[in-house]
């Protein structure tokens, strides 16, 4: 009898813990949708698409936005109060979200120039035209053009910290050359045909 009561108490405790810890992704991402779209395909200018991005990368960046490690122009971008479980669940949600990123107006000359630079300098970590990843780099194909250009500038100015030898890849490239690589990534379809 006694064991039975203990077991019931335990299972009640377990159920309520699990319940409290299950993140409600729908409500958590409601404010994000205003800029990143309900499924991570962004509709706002200079705003990255999050759909189909690597979960580990998203988790790292969302945590960085919450704890201030990543500089951002958006006030209260990710609430500081988000638990690690919330961050992981939201990262998974966007990573698994499929959707069509809008085609963008790109300059074909810059795309060609950017492809050449990419093949020499960037493809080691952003292979297959940015559809794949090595060394924990994010996926880039079909990403928002203006966002990509801003981020290359942020790395050069030091607003965003270079990670794992990307500074070597950037060394000696002008802002125009880096923008050309952004045109190349932006011109790519996110999914392999
Ligand atoms: C007011 C518009 C706005 C809202 C709301 C917003 N974001 Fe963002 N987000 C941006 C912009 C703009 C950037 C890029 C520049 C920056 O951070 O300032 C960005 C960048 C990001 C990035 C980095 C993506 C990458 O490729 O590195 C992540 C991850 C992200 N946001 C997640 C979220 C989450 C999660 C929420 C909701 C809690 C959210 N954002 C709410 C506008 C917004
Ligand atoms: C040695 C590996 C490596 C090389 C080479 C490399 N990158 Fe990266 N790149 C990364 C990593 C890792 C990140 C993620 C940085 C972070 O965690 O903040 C990244 C992130 C980026 C981002 C930000 C994407 C986003 O969604 O916010 C841009 C833009 C970028 N790289 C451009 C380039 C360009 C252009 C080149 C070539 C000139 C290049 N990278 C070469 C590893 C690399």
Automatic annotation (TrEMBL):
Location within or outside the cell: Periplasm
Keyword Translocase attributed: no
Signal peptide: 1-20
Domain of life, per lineage: Bacteria
Keyword hit for Isomerase: no
PROSITE patterns associated with the record: CYTC
Stretches assigned to coiled coil: none
Primary location group: periplasm
Name the record gives this protein: Cytochrome c domain-containing protein
Organism: Aromatoleum petrolei
Lineage of the species this protein comes from: Bacteria, Pseudomonadati, Pseudomonadota, Betaproteobacteria, Rhodocyclales
């Amino acid at each position: 009898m006694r064991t039975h009561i203990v077991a019931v108490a335990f299972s009640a405790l377990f159920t309520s813990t699990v319940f409290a810890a299950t993140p409600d992704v729908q409500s958590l991402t409601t404010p994000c949708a205003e800029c990143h779209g309900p499924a991570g395909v962004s509709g706002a200018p200079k705003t990255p698409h999050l759909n189909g991005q690597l979960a580990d990368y998203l988790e790292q960046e969302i945590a960085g936005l919450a704890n201030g490690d990543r500089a951002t122009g958006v006030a209260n971008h990710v609430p500081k109060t988000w638990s690690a479980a919330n961050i992981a669940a939201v990262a998974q949600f966007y990573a698994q979200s499929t959707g069509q990123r809008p085609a963008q107006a790109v300059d074909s000359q810059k795309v060609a120039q950017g492809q050449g630079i990419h093949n020499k300098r960037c493809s080691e970590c952003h292979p297959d035209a940015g559809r794949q990843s090595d060394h924990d780099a994010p996926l880039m194909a079909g990403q928002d053009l203006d966002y990509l250009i801003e981020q290359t500038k942020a790395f050069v100015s030091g607003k965003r910290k270079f990670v794992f030898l990307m500074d070597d890849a950037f060394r000696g490239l002008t802002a125009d050359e880096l923008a050309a690589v952004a045109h190349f990534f932006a011109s790519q379809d996110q999914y392999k045909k």
